[in-house]
């Protein structure tokens, strides 16, 4: 059965090979159009993150916007724009595409919140921006918030998601993974946690990461909440190495096959493959 995949996070827009290789395909990307279509990926969220491009932030921003403008004409798939960190908003830069989801910060601190590795709290500006995003129908992603900022954001009572996080109980993931209490709080608000393929977030020893590791995190989060609270957020093109058995978007059939091999029902596989994200984002898609 060909599942309708919804992948909630990739970093392809900032890959310098993307402009030439996205449409025809190539060896430099985890994601290109031929592999997306062959795997029946019906929705792909594509993020722009400018913070890592120190000194070249505006260049990275323009590259991401330019690539999304080109790629969104792709037929047979819905591509969705996302902000990984709201630094461009803080800079007052033009936002030509409506983001389906936004994280307040990346790994570092900014005017809105504290990222991984700090103890900075959600700021007043961050609270105001969160309310503005919700009012503008942009979902809020907690993936890169530190524990303090994330818990303060959760206290505001908004429905939020984690587009690319795993369970901290199974792997600390440099504190990028979520503790059980936050997993439960996100689920209570109708949110979804997108299990990511970053080896360091799957296994304490990254070289042990495999498709089975991905399923372990899916099952753990589902057991803590429900099968309706978990999905995928690959982080393709945002990480150099991938788990054993996964090479890029062409590997989705192998991932689905592994779920079937574990004895998952068709209904549960369809929820995790994409229907949970479609429900959260209220996107019309193949919900069969």
Detail the topology: elements first, then pairings.
Elements: E1 5-7, H1 18-21, H2 33-38, E2 41-48, H3 57-71, E3 78-84, H4 87-91, E4 101-103, H5 124-135, E5 139-141, H6 147-155, E6 160-161, H7 180-188, E7 193-195, H8 199-202, H9 211-224, E8 230-232, H10 252-261, H11 266-281
Parallel strand pairs: 1-2, 2-3, 3-4, 4-5, 5-6, 7-8
Number of helices: 11
Name of the CATH homologous superfamily:
Metal-dependent hydrolases
Task: Indicate the mean pLDDT.
Answer: 96
Q: Specify the CATH architecture.
A: Alpha-Beta Barrel
In CATH, what is the class? Alpha Beta
Strand order of the largest sheet: 1-2-3-4-5-6
Cα separation of the termini: 12 Å
Principal-axis shape? globular
Question: Would you write up a description of this structure?
Answer:
This protein is about 35% helix and about 10% strand. It is of the alpha/beta class and about 290 residues long. The strands form two sheets. Strands 1-2-3-4-5-6 form a six-stranded parallel beta sheet. A two-stranded parallel ribbon has the order 7-8. The model is unreliable at about 285-288 (pLDDT under 50).
What distinguishing features does this structure have?
single chain, 288 residues, alpha/beta, TIM Barrel, 6-stranded parallel β-sheet, two-stranded parallel sheet, 36% helix, globular, disordered C terminus
Short description:
With 288 residues, the protein is of the alpha/beta class. Helix content is 36%, strand content 11%.
